[in-house]
Design brief:
- The chain is an alpha+beta fold and 265 residues long.
- Strands 1, 3, 4, 6, 10, 11, 12 and 14 form an 8-stranded antiparallel sheet that branches. A 6-stranded antiparallel sheet has the order 2-5-13-7-8-9, with no helix packed on it.
- A hairpin with a 5-residue loop joins strand 10 and strand 11.
- Helix 2 runs antiparallel to helix 3 and helix 3 packs antiparallel against helix 5.
- It is globular, with a radius of gyration of 17 Å.
- 51% of the residues are buried.
Length: 265
């Protein structure tokens, strides 16, 4: 098997092969939901992703995750890579694109991840999404993922910048960051620091007003009755779990979505 050497092999080429049992089980479940086999290239991309995450040591930290791309149908896309299957609220087949993921409508459509925010310790948590298309809404909060307000990822209502929180009430909003597609995530492994990643850069902030919500995490909105903040972004991946190296997950997810796009005719 090729060994990854920066500048010599892509991540996908380095871990090519279909011999990972977790990837195989996931692919079999997706194909059962689709009623049809996936292309070999899509299978290879998934195996590469899983094996790469294991090689990086971040696979165990992923507790609830869906690859919202690659599958032939919406049902297949909602098969969980890890953890419980999400509950679908109002998404239909036409909302799904195999290469770019699932698109929200900014008003009624969302997923309940069926993962409670407090399933991980307050100071040991991460969340991440891959954004294929930014939210086009203006003047409103729109969350890509979130609980009632303590752990969220989204776009801010005043300047449209990405922001997030991990068990804290204050927004992380890097001043130099404009909205960008691609991987966005946040991770917390101490009481004193939260890492926010966007545009392939990490920003460190200090939590100031800790909050540890006891509700399920939602995707395409946050789980808050008064201000849910639905998003009409298009997402191709989400993950919820323990703290991890966001740069490693970013590289793996970005390579996965790129490889799926190449593999689909």
């Amino acid at each position: 098997m090729p060994i990854y050497v920066p500048g010599k092999l892509t991540l996908r080429q380095a871990y090519i092969g279909t011999d990972d049992p977790d990837a195989a089980a996931y692919i079999a479940a997706v194909e059962a939901a689709d009623g049809e086999a996936l292309e070999t290239g899509v299978q290879l991309a998934i195996h590469s992703f899983v094996k790469g995450c294991k090689a990086d040591g971040i696979w165990p930290a992923l507790k609830a995750s869906c690859i919202l791309a690659g599958a032939r149908t919406l049902d297949g896309a909602l098969v969980p890579l890890k953890g419980a299957a999400p509950t679908n609220f109002n998404f239909v087949e036409g909302d799904y694109d195999r290469e770019t993921g699932l698109v929200g409508d900014g008003s009624t459509k969302y997923l309940d991840s069926n993962r409670n925010n407090n399933a991980e310790p307050q100071n040991n948590k991460s969340v991440g999404v891959y954004i294929s298309t930014l939210s086009s809404q203006t003047g409103v909060f729109r969350w890509s993922l979130g609980d009632s307000g303590s752990t969220v990822l989204g776009q801010y209502n005043t300047d449209n910048k990405h922001y997030g929180r991990i068990n804290d009430q204050n927004n992380i909003r890097p001043g130099s960051t404009s909205p960008e597609t691609g991987f966005v995530g946040a991770s917390r492994n101490t009481a004193s620091s939260i890492t926010f990643r966007v545009g392939q850069s990490d920003y460190l902030v200090n939590p100031t007003n800790n909050l540890y919500a006891n509700v399920n995490m939602h995707v395409f909105k946050r789980n808050n009755v008064n201000t849910p903040g639905y998003s009409n972004a298009r997402l191709a991946f989400y993950s919820i779990g323990e703290a991890l190296d966001l740069s490693l997950l970013d590289a793996r997810v970005t390579d996965l979505i790129t490889a799926i796009g190449v593999a689909i005719p």
